[in-house]
């Protein structure tokens, strides 16, 4: 699909640098207000304002395990027992961390051909792993366990019910406060103020880039006469703000009529 330029009265390309705009959350820099001195406006009410994500350069610096994602705790016998250091882990680093924990009375083994882990009770007594506790569910899911409590006797073992998945952030969704009226999701209410989804196709430490031609060109329709200010936020698939650890990034948006 390509844009028919004969129907475009005018267009604007907006470049955003995260370090130059107002940040709305003191803990992360992915919830922004952009105030424009140059107004973007339509000349008559019969025009539609179309908004399209044009490009992005976002450093892949967000962790796959953090308190914001609520996936660093594991409760045993009703109390917090294993607490991960917030950071990015591959499965081997995660196994090493768990096996080096003195408080956690289980060893862990990664079964590569099954993509599952085995937990072994190394204590002399039985313990209940509270996978069903609210703070444990995120880590339980990442390790492939069902979110229910399990009792494991001394020397006993349990294996993941499902495959492990350490890709805890699947996609980046670009949200706005502008009145979007043509984006539908399966989330309750269906209509959402989302401009685009950015796929994560690289590894931790790389740069996430976006090209609209790779995913099929789509533009959201904004039903208002002019735009002087807008909010933009970067969120994961669960609507949590992305935590880039205060690393700056750039976005660009195309407005056309």
Rounded mean pLDDT score? 93
* Overall shape: elongated
Distance between the termini: 17 Å
Quaternary structure annotation: single chain
Describe the structure.
The chain has helices at 91-99, 137-142; strands spanning 11-17, 22-23, 31-41, 49-59, 73-76, 79-83, 106-111, 116-121, 127-129, 150-152, 157-159, 171-176, 194-199, 207-210, 220-222, 226-235, 250-256. The protein is mainly beta. Strands 1, 4, 14, 15 and 17 form a five-stranded antiparallel beta sheet that branches. Strands 2-3-16-12-13 form a five-stranded antiparallel beta sheet, with no helix packed on it. The model has no long low-confidence stretch (mean pLDDT 93).
Features:
single chain; 257 residues; mainly beta; five-stranded antiparallel beta sheet
């Amino acid at each position: 699909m390509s844009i028919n330029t004969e129907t475009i009265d005018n267009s604007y390309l907006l470049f955003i640098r995260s370090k130059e705009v107002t940040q709305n959350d003191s803990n992360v820099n992915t919830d922004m207000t952009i105030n424009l001195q140059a107004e973007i406006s339509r000349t008559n009410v019969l025009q539609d304002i179309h908004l399209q994500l044009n490009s992005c350069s976002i450093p892949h610096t967000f962790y796959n395990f953090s308190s914001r994602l609520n996936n660093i705790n594991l409760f045993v016998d009703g109390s917090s027992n294993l607490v991960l250091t917030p950071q990015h882990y591959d499965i081997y680093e995660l196994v090493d961390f768990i096996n080096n924990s003195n408080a956690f009375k289980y060893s862990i083994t990664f079964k590569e051909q099954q993509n599952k882990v085995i937990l072994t009770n190394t204590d002399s007594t039985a313990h209940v792993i509270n996978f069903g506790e609210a703070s444990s569910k995120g880590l339980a899911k990442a390790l492939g366990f069902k979110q229910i409590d399990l009792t494991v006797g001394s020397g006993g073992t349990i294996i993941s019910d499902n495959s492990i998945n350490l890709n805890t952030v699947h996609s980046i969704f670009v949200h706005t406060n502008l009145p979007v009226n043509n984006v539908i999701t399966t989330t309750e209410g269906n209509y959402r103020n989302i401009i685009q989804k950015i796929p994560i196709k690289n590894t931790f430490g790389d740069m996430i880039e976006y090209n609209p031609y790779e995913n099929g060109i789509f533009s959201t329709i904004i039903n208002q006469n002019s735009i002087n200010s807008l909010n933009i936020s970067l969120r994961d698939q669960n609507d949590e703000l992305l935590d880039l650890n205060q690393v700056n990034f750039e976005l660009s948006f195309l407005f056309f009529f």
